[in-house]
Amino acid sequence: MRDAAADDALATLMLPFEAGPLSWPAEGGALFLRARDGYPLHRQPRPGLVCEQSFRPEAERLERSGLTLREADGDGAER
User: What distance in Å separates the CA atoms of residue 9 and residue 22, rounded to the nearest whole number?
Assistant: First the structure.
């Protein structure tokens, strides 16, 4: 099992937003495809972040952490 607190790939993905080269969108947010939960997603506020994950265990982990989850079936509904 992956340690969510030590997820180097997720930390690297969020690095441009945390180090300053990119600003998190003030409006509209972002869609994170094949998302997985981890500490880097919670270090800073991420308003408008919507996650998509078709693998049920990862989707449940995202929901438990309080992130907005979009169904992977393409209907656009959020949970």
Answer: 18
Contact 61, 53 (CB under 8 A): no
The string of pLDDT tens digits covering residues 24-37 is 988 888 999 999 99
Question: How far apart are the C-alpha atoms of 76 and 5, rounded to whole Å?
Answer: 29
Global pTM reads: 0.77
How far is 31 from 28, CA to CA, in rounded Å? Answer: 9
Which pLDDT band holds residue 59 (cuts at 50, 70, 90)? very high
Q: How far, in Å, CA of 4 to CA of 51, rounded?
A: 16
Residue 51: closest CA among 25, 27, 33, 26: 33
